[in-house]
Structures are given as C-alpha cells and as structure tokens.
Prior knowledge:
21% of the residues lie in helices and 23% in strands. By secondary structure, it is an alpha+beta fold. Residues 147-157 have low confidence and may be disordered. It is globular and about 45 Å long. It has helices at 21-28, 39-47, 90-100, 118-122; strands spanning 4-7, 10-13, 50-56, 59-68, 73-81, 109-111. The protein has 4 helices and 6 strands. Bound molecules: coenzyme A. Coenzyme A is lined by residues 79-81, 86-92, 114, 116-117, 119-120, 158-159.
Amino acid sequence: MVTQWALGKMIVSDELERLNFDVVHGFLTTAYWSVGVSRELVERAARHSVPFGVYDDGAQVGYARVVTDRTRFAYLADVFVLPTHRGRGLGALLLSCVLEHPELRDVRRFLLVTTDAHGLYERFGFTALTRPEKYMERLRHPGTSDDAEAAGRPDGSAG
Ligand SMILES: CC(C)(COP(=O)(O)OP(=O)(O)OC[C@H]1O[C@@H](n2cnc3c(N)ncnc32)[C@H](O)[C@@H]1OP(=O)(O)O)[C@@H](O)C(=O)NCCC(=O)NCCS
C-alpha cells in the first residue's frame, strides 16, 4: 500500500516505483557520505528500505530511506533535498512524513548518523546516543572514511 502526503503541489510518497533514480543516484553519487556510489547499489538499497520521495509538481526534489524491521528498529539514511529546493521546509516535511508513516511511527528506536545536520534532527526528537558504550559497530574496512562506501559497501554513513 502506498502512503502519500500532499501539501499544495508538493507530495511526499513511499512508492518505490515513483522514484526517479536519475535524481536519487545523481545526488547520492556526489554526496559526502557516498561519493561515487553506483546506481545499482542506490537502487538495491531503496528496494530493501522504506523509500521516501519528495515531488514538486511531479518532479523529484528530495529523498530519504529507512532501513527497518517496522517494529523495534529503524535507521534513517540518504536524506537530501536538492539545492534548488532547500530552505523552504521540505527537509522538515520529509522528516515529519518519515516519522508519521503508519509502519514507522511506533518503532522503538530510530537511529541515524550525521556530520552536520544535528540541529535539524533535534527538532524531531533525535538526541546524541544516551548510552554510547552499549553500541558497537563492525566495519568491513576499518580506518577508511565513509567515502569508501562508494565501492559498494552500505555499511558506514547515513546522510
Ligand atoms: C539537510 C537538508 C535535507 C535540509 O533540507 P531543507 O529543505 O533545506 O530543510 P528545511 O527547509 O526544512 O529546514 C528545516 C530547518 O532545519 C535547518 N537545517 C537545515 N539543514 C540543516 C543542517 N545541515 N544543520 C542544521 N540545521 C539545518 C534549517 O535551518 C531549518 O531551520 P529553520 O526552520 O529554523 O530555518 C538539506 O539541506 C540537504 O539536502 N543537505 C545536503 C544533504 C545532507 O546534508 N543531508 C543530511 C545528511 S545527515
């Protein structure tokens, strides 16, 4: 079932088939957390996530995806609004839709990783880890930057 929100001519939708991967891959392959990521990897990641597109008059201008079991855990990744459309509240709209989504709103723990957008996420209740000593991670290539993800490893960054 497709979930969709409309605000004037802006639409946020979780419909996979509606995504424009020219836009999604075009942005992500230049984003600091996924430089050079392949289109195949971007499409595979979307297929295995709950993907969200933001559309202005039908044209895609934003994206985010959530990796989740839809009950206890969710990980928000690859959040962006195209530069032409920033500063108009679309990032906030996108986050509201993600967190209100019927299959995500009751998820117990939402995680994300960000380099500089803490202020945006704090407005939606995200905080620094309360017990960071409890968390562990396993990186296939320790010591490399998140940019190494571009080689095809969806293991590092969020965006
Ligand atoms: C982050 C991003 C999605 C925000 O989209 P946007 O449509 O410009 O966001 P909004 O217009 O809804 O702004 C919402 C609020 O968040 C703030 N904000 C936006 N980006 C921010 C950032 N990087 N850090 C802190 N606050 C931020 C805005 O100032 C705004 O606050 P205000 O309402 O008090 O003015 C967009 O800037 C983007 O795509 N950036 C590049 C990709 C990126 O960094 N993604 C996040 C990776 S974790």
